[in-house]
Each structure stands twice: as C-alpha cells, then as structure tokens.
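Issue 218. Parser rejects a valid record. Input:
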Amino acid sequence: MTKHFISFLLLLSLLIFPLQSINAQEVSGPIYIVQPGDSLSSIAVFFSISQTDLMTANNITDPNQLDVGQQLVIPGLNGITGVINTQRINFGDSFRSLTRRTQVPLDMFKKLNHIVSPSEFYVGTNMIVPVQEGNQGLNKRISTKTGESLLEAAAKQNTDVWTVAYYNDLQGSWDAVPGDTLFAPGESVEQTVSGLPSAFVSAQIRDLPLKQGGTGVIRVKTASPDVTLGGILVDHQLHFFPLEDGTQVALQGVHALLHPGVYPLRMDATLPDGSTQSYEQNVLIVSGNYPDDPLLYVDPKTIDPAETEPELNKLVEITSPVTPEKLWSGDFYSPASQYAESTYFTSRFGNRRTYIGLNTELSVQGFHTGLDFGGGTGLPITAPARGKVIVAENWTVRGGTIIIDHGWGVYSGFWHQSKFLAQVGDVVEQGQVIGEVGGTGRVTGPHLHWELWVNGIQVDPLDWLTNTYP
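Output the parser choked on:
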C-alpha cells in the first residue's frame, strides 16, 4: 500500500509541476546586450526565435521587463558562444574585412544578420558581431601596394607572411591582391583597424545613419599630411579642410527630398608621389519623418515657375562656392535670440508643403526649406554665427533677403525681412543684429525664415542649434 501511495505522489507531482521543471533547466547560448529601442519582440524577430522561448531562456515573466544593458541568453544559435555585440558599420568596414578582422565564420555572420549578399552590407546599419571565446583580436591592418610583396607589407607591421596568410585564408604569399586589406594579431604600428586602403589611417562619418535634411560630417586621418583628399557623397563633390588635430573634415548636406535608401560615398586620396587610392561604399540614408503642413494659399506670382525658377537658380549659384576660410567657431545661436521669450517655431524644416495660388488653379508641391520663427514686423534678426554678408536685396519669393557666407560651403539665408541693418561686404559677428522681421515675399504673415545651406544643399537648421559642427 505504501509503494502504491508513493508512486501516486510522484505521478501527481509530475502532472502538477511540469513547467517548473522545464523552466529550471539551464539554457545555454550566446549573450546579447540589450540596446536602446530594443523590445523582447524585436529581439526575438531579429534572431528568428519565438518571444516565448526568449522569455523562458531568461526566466522573464513580464514581456515589458527589459532594461538597456541587460544580458539576454539567445537560445537556438548552435555553435555560437560568447557575447553578441551590435556594431554600427562605418566607412571602411567592408563585409570581407569585418569577417576577417573578427574571425567570425562567414556562414555564421550571414545567419546572424540575415545577409543574402555582401551588397546588403552598407554604412549606417547595425550588424550583429559575436565575440567568439578564445578568438584572438586582429588589430594589425596590412594592405599591399602595387609592386609590393606580401612579405614586405607584413614586415612593415612587424609580423610574418605565414601568419597573415593563415588568418586571412590565403593560399600563400602569392595570393595577396594589391590594395586588399588583410589583418594579423597584435597592435597596429601606424594604422587603425578598418578595411581602408593604406593612404587612409581612419575615416569616420558622424551621426549615422544619415537622414534626409541632415548634415554629414566626414572626418579622415591620412597616413601622410601631404595626402590630398576628395570624393563624392550621393552626387556632390566633397571638399576637405584641415583640423588642428591633423585630420581633415568635409561637411555635406543631404537633400530633404532624397528617397531613403543606399547611396554611394567615395573617398579619393592623392599621395605625394602623384599616385591615387580610392575607396567606395554604400551609405544608408533614412527618412527624416517630416509631416505635412496645411495647404498654403499665396500670391500666384510667388509660385509661378517664371518667377521661382530663376530666383532658385540664382540662390543655388550664390551658395555653391566653397570659401576655404572657416569664419565661425563653436555653436550656432538662434537668429531669434533677442526675442526668444516671445517666439516659437511656426513651421520646421522638411515639412511637406502644397502652395496654392489665390483665386487660381495653380499649385506647387515641395518642402519647407528652413526654420520659421513666429513674430511681428520689426523684431531684430541676429547672425547665428560669424560670417560675411554677400546678399542684401529684395527678391520676389523670398522678399527681403540677406545671405551670410560662414565659410567651408556653409551659408545662412534670412527671408521676408522688412529692413536691412547689414550690407554686402560686412563681416558680422555672432549675435549682431543684421535686419528686422517682416512679411515680404511668399508669406501668410510676418515671420523670420532661417535657411542653412551646406555644400549646395539645404539642411535642418535645428541640427546646427543642438550640435556643434564640425
């Protein structure tokens, strides 16, 4: 009787507590560090596992219980150990160079990131990179030049050709291609780790991914101070300028109507001996998420292509030259700073707009090219940064217009003014009054419209009020 009773209790315990025994099992797998914006559902989808399995593996009962920096075990990823890092791809991080440098097997890297083709690998995206237990970090970057043997290139980095061949899956010293980027263990002698050619020590793009209406900041360090840089972002020529730390920087606006997607970024380096090295990679550009403004009814003359196109062409011509001298320093200040307590933004940059001519069927679609500050006629407009006044005149669409050249291809424009207090040729200081608010040109009421151009493209001025450039 006792044996039957004990057997009954054992059976009963299995029926009552089956889930507890499963949850108590220790689940192994790689560790993922929770990033800002992550949720349990998004993490589960990314790793192609169920949210239930993810919660079970980590003893999570509340799906909203997730903290940035929290460590999660990812079940079901057989053969992967250690910590799974999220790495933002920057310029020079090619598909081949990243897998070589991290020594992550190609199939595993593709599986983790759902990559079908290397063409899906572009600047501005986040990639999952497992830090394999026992893997040795490869920090020496080696790139052979035309006519240079792998033995010579390896010797410059204090390593040997057999080590380089082993870690980069080369058949031998003869298997290296000029310009290819290879890696070896140890600390680099002269270059940082990336997939760039030897003329480039490093290249970084700030605030990735780039957005519609944003300002791209491209900072490059070259192997020699005598290297001359150039290049193209989307379809605009880049202009590089020296900084005090020995790097060179280029600023480039991204058009607010550019379709989100991937676009080319090419860097060109001309070496002191006249030889050139180039590197091109696709860059992700994302939506600025700009809303629609209400319909705007305006004077038909101000949206007539016969008036608007010549004026826009004139503006583009004025803001295209790149002055080599940088006139500003530090942050930009609001041009409405002297009446900040009584103003607000009446319309922001990038908002999609439709203008309709009063008492006509004429309509024009576009976007808001600047930042509007509310305010009445006569309020003071101040220079947001030091620069030189190159335009002070009345235009049809933009009304009372002042344009300031800040140098390095950066221009400020102030439309609809009622009065000019600065003239062409004046070098104005930050905070200096340059004019007064008005209601001239294409307006529905008096306000200050501030426009900012960076290397031939209008950008969001608000970015320049909240960030320091370059």
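Fixed in the parser; the record now loads. The longest strand covers residues 276-286.
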